[in-house]
Amino acid sequence: MAGQEIYQASTTAPVNIAVVKYWGKRDPKLNLPTNSSISVTLSQSDLRTHTTAACSSKFPSEDTLLLNSSPQDTSGARTQACFRELRSLRSALEASDFSLPKISSLPLRIVSENNFPTAAGLASSAAGFAALVRAIADLYQLPASPTELSRIARQGSGSACRSLFGGYVAWQMGTKDDGSDSLAVEVAPASHWPTMRALILVVSAEKKGVSSTSGMQITVATSELFQRRAEVVVPKHMSEMEEAIKAKDFEKFGKVTMMESNSFHSVCSDTFPPIFYLNDVSKAAIRVVEDINKKAGKIIAAYTFDAGPNAVIYYEEENTAAVAGVVKGALEGLDGWQSREIESQDAGNLDARAV
Ligand code: DP6
Q1: Where is the Diphosphomevalonate decarboxylase-like N-terminal domain (predicted)?
Q2: 37 lines ligand 1 (CB under 6 A)
């Protein structure tokens, strides 16, 4: 048994924004998806979760989790699944090396801070669970790769498995019932396409109306369009997107990104009762991007929306003025529009600029 020491590790995990969307679970308990997905990881300096995991025999016997200073329930199945998996890996290490302190059964104290709105369609659960899993894995000194940890983070929140990597990341849906092959892998590091930029339009920082978890369950149960999306549309977009990223072909990347976002929001509208995540400002942003591309005579900007009205617009650095400048100018003054600008550079991850 370990003594009275406090063991501690801290880490950060970035937000990722899917360009081929995860929407639908074939196994809600293990968070196994109905289709594969691809995301781009954003800069850690602006959009990230910072998490410290600690354990000690001095702590009260219950595991605790503070998010942005408010106590969270740790008894939920998702958090419990992550704790259980990580504890069991640590306990296997302790069994194989008697010199290691026995800390796997000590109460955990987790403290997390997000520097962006929680649950407003900015993938907070992705960064949150990725940081939680990596902080505990570091605390337990597990020799696990990001792909191995992605199997655990996925059980916290599906999209979290992609936040264990920087750059361009695919979550392969896998085929096994136990989820052992439903994992995240790197498609390309951020350094492969260093001119890629993202503009984040914080249209609303309020919590979203229908959570991703329940929204996708209702879609799977009621939308006929959904099956075609999962079986035909997404597999096509997956291979086109991988090709576009590998070839650094922005026109192709942009076209698939926008068509994917449209396809995802179409199955949301085809859900019964329908789910609407986009608002008037989101739709205005789509029109602005269309005008920018029309004026340029090619695709130089691409929008995408998750389960909320906030837009992410991808573009290449050389088009900063033609995209970021124009979007801001066109949308400023619209009702419900919040302006927030972030610009940063972060090694290993995509430069993000939020307006
Ligand atoms: C629209 O990962 O939040 O952002 O697995 O239930 O936690 P759970 O869902 P979550 O869903 C993300 C949905 C999305 C698309 C995506 O990120 O791929």
Answers
A1: 13-184
A2: yes
Q: How many angstroms does the Cα of residue 159 sit away from the middle of ligand 1?
A: 5
| Pairing, β 196-201 against β 183-188 | unpaired
d(CA 184, CA 171): 4
Residue nearest to atom 14 of ligand 1 (CA): 306
Burial class for 62, CB neighbours closer than 10 Å (0-12, 13-18, 19+): exposed
Residue 198 CA, chain-centre distance (Å), reads: 14
CA pair distance 39, 18, nearest whole angstrom: 4
Give the whole-angstrom CA distance, residue 240 versus residue 199.
23
- Token representation of residue 312: 């992410």
8 Å CB contact between 302 and 254: yes
- Whether the CB of 319 sits within 6 Å of ligand 1: no
Closest atom of ligand 1 relative to the 123 alpha carbon: 4
Whose structure tokens read 């900063």?
Answer: 320
Token digits of residue 265: 């929001």
User: Who contacts 283 (Cβ-Cβ below 8 Å, separation ≥6)?
Assistant: none
Q: Give the amino acid at 134.
A: R
Instruction: State pLDDT tens for residues 220-272.
Output: 999 999 999 999 999 999 999 999 999 999 999 999 999 999 999 999 999 99
Q: What is the 294 CA–ligand 1 centroid distance (Å)? A: 31
Q: How far is the CA of 24 from the centre of ligand 1 (A)?
A: 9
Substitution candidate for ligand 1 out of 36, 129, 155, 159 with most atoms within 8 A of CB: 159
**Does the global pTM surpass 0.90?**
yes
Cβ–ligand 1 distance for 78 under 6 Å, the answer no
Q: Is the ipTM of this complex over 0.95?
A: yes
Residues 242 and 170 sit within 8 Å (Cβ to Cβ) = yes
Spell out the residues 6+ positions from residue 54 whose beta carbon is closer than 8 angstroms to its own.
6, 7, 8, 9, 108, 109, 110, 111, 139
